[in-house]
Amino acid sequence: MNVFENIFQSLDQNSNEIKVFLNKFKSSLGVDGDNHFSVALKNEIHRWKNKSKQNDTAIYASDKLGEIQSKFDQFARKEKLCDDVNLIKNFSLLFNSSLEDCLDSLDELYRAKGIDPKPYNEEKMSNLIENVCGLICSTFSLVLSRSTGKNNISILWTLHFKSYSELIDGMRVSFKGFKLHLKDSVEQLWAYYRNSWIGPVPPLQAMVHLENILEQLFEIRAYYEQLIQIIPSSDHKNYGLHDSIELVLVSICLNDLNFFVKDPLTCPSTENNDWLNAIESFYSALNKAEKRAAMEIHMKFSKIDNQSTDNQRCAQMVKIMKDNARLLKRPIVSNYIVAEKEALLASFEINLSQYKEELDRLKNCQYSFRHPLDPIEIASLNLHRFGNVSSAVSLIFAATQLQGKVEETRALTTQLLADIPLLEAVSRKCTETLQDLDSWRNKLFSSWSEHYRKLLDLNEKDGGIKLDQDLGLLVLKSVENQLLFEVSFPDTLIFLQYDIRCLSFCGYQISSKIEKACKTAEEFQRYAVVLKQVAHLYNALDTEIIECQRPLMLQNAIAFEKMVKHHSLPGSGGEDSIITWYSSKDKLEAYIDKLRSAAKNLISENRLLTKVYHKIIQDLSSLFTVNLLRERSKWEEGISQMRYQISNLKAKFQYNEENLNAWNVYLDHQLYKVLEHQYRLGLEFLNKRLPLVQLDLITENGNFKFKPPMEDVRSHYYAELRRFILLPKNFPCFTTGSSKAVTNALFATLIDENSASFRVCYRKAEILFSQLEALINPWRKWFSVDMSNMTELIKENCVQVADFEKNFKTLKMKGREVEKLPIEGQLDCFVINYYPVKRALDSLLSHISEALLDTLAESVSADLTIVESFIREATEKTSAKPQTTKELNEAREVERNLLKQLQQVKNHLSMAIDKDKLSETVSGCSHKNLKNVINKWSKIQIILEGFSSTLDEKRSVSFLILFE
């Protein structure tokens, strides 16, 4: 067979009869289609290779055909190695790439640049394209011919439905792109080559056949997917359903239709009886499941809320039908829900009536072509506005939206309700409404087109929108007795673009005249925007520029005005100087760039001046709260910073001194207001607002005085007072040169205007110094004690323990009072440091405390001395042993004297003990000899008792001797 085919194809002039005969011959021999395409391409390559020794054409053709063959061979090998998941993931990307390379190779093969003669004419190329298309489809089928499981079921049945949907979507996109690309090449490229293509685009029969098979398979799988979705999974087994469709196919036992289950892509035709019988067998096996699905769909319709609006119910019904569209194509399901279909059709009919009423309302709306619409007109139309379009175009857009709704209704009725008898009436009503809509909106569009065609014939001064070639880009117009510049570019041209965009969106073909005007408007619109900014700047110069800054910007503003007028107004610079919209593009752009640059510079200068102005005014305002007396440095720093900003402006824009001083004079007047406020405030509260003066209150030899001395304080205070009074005379200002003297004289007037306050300042100063002297008085009472005879004074007044205790308590209380005394105080501008005098007071209390302790210790020592003297005397006198009566009487007299002194000495000892306890409590020290004296005292009492007993014994003995 291949031998005969090569012979026939090698003939350049073989007739159509021979081709037909060859095809019939191949069919009769049962040659497989897929193999045929591959073999045909290989034979074609072989044919060219045999000729490659003869010419370059054969070499070129064999190389290009070899590229196509190898590309799809590689694709098939790669995809064969992929698992099912990666197959779907990579298929579209690799297949699209192969198709694009194939199209490029076909294009290069047909054009054959630099090759003569061309390898293919139109007829041969058409045959080659069909063969290549067959190769594409055979490669596609080869990749998807794999089978799985013990039953060898095709992957097209075993793939998950989502993956299969992705595969089909990718196939649709790929095949559609291939067809469009081929059509573009044939009709737009190959038709203009030397070997021009005159015939139709090749029909690509193999691709159409493959698409039909895949679409039918997709319908079956989508039908089954909807079936298992709507029937509860618990009932699947009862109706012979499984999660995977391949199990259903096996259970149906299509043994006699193995190709349908194992490799459906081998079907020669979708009209083939075996193919049709297989599909019918599949559907017949699921009749019982279809009945249950019909019941489920009916239940979904019955659950629609009756409280919903008609539109909501209609939308819910449409959703149910769309979700089950494949099931509804089956007669069993379709017949079961006839009532619901009729109800939906009735809803569509009601919607059509509403659309008709809406159309009648639109027809009765008053419309215009002006821009922009005023709010009243917008409200009267009651429409969703499509941008800044005119009311007429808004109506056209509304009609287009309405047309979309009617077309959607017609499509839904045709798709979902094709078997309803009343469908024809509804379809007819849809058609009538669409015709009415088309007629009305086309009429409105014609009116719009005619309106703008007329406007385009008239200049703007005549009410039109045509660009006047005699007018400059900017024209002067009188508005409220004021001459203002306006751009000679009608705003209607801008709004016309909005209208055209909207109408193009609605599918209208705009006339060439209007389209040209729109393109011109688009071309000049960016210039018009710049010119409007320039015109606005010129018109608003008086309001945009601060009055005090006008002298600074005068020269630049005049230059800008001359530039605008010179090229815009007749008589300003000659006829040739006027630039219009019809001037050359280079001239127009140069002028607009110059205007933009000048306007930008003027705006930048004004903005910078305004920024500096507001900053200076803000800084001046902040000085209202800055104390001129205490914070003089802040004033000087602030004014210096402001002057620095002004000097920067002067250097940047090269302002002359005269114009700059005009601005500085204004700023000096603002500075005068701030200075006046602070000057008056300073005079009124001078004693409180002067810089703080530090004073130390000290005491020397019992006398109080301030450090520095009061004479120096007075001198400093009055010097500051005089300095402040004369401050305005040489106060720093903004003006320079000859104008500075005028400003200084202005500031100096503050002295004369406030002279009445000077006397008050001096009077307050004297009062302040008197108050300062009076601050010493509270401290004098603390130093009224004479420390020179403190010890004698204590000895005179402190005898008993209670006296000492009272004085120690008083001293402690005074110490606490001293702690509470302030370390620092302030009187207006004077800050008085009390620490030196407080330290002296602490020292005084310390001396008194030491004197009390010393006196207390001396008192203890004196008492102990008396006790010790008594002990020595008693010890000495009681040591004698009387022998005679005289001695005995003398001893008795000694005893009586000692006993008389005993209580008094005992009191001294008791006082010494109490005083020592007080001393130990206050100072933590006790008398070192106290314990020794106490021990001696206890012994002397025993001695006295013994001495008394001895005298009594001696006396008894004397009496016995006497009686004897």
Automatic annotation (TrEMBL):
Keywords: Coiled coil. The keyword Metal-binding does not apply. InterPro entries: DHC, Dynein_heavy_tail. It comes from the Eukaryota. The keyword Coiled coil applies. Residues 103-565 form the Dynein heavy chain tail domain. Residues 338-365 form a coiled coil. PANTHER family: CYTOPLASMIC DYNEIN 2 HEAVY CHAIN 1, MALE FERTILITY FACTOR KL5. This is Cytoplasmic dynein 2 heavy chain 1. It comes from Cichlidogyrus casuarinus. The lineage of its organism: Eukaryota, Metazoa, Spiralia, Lophotrochozoa, Platyhelminthes.
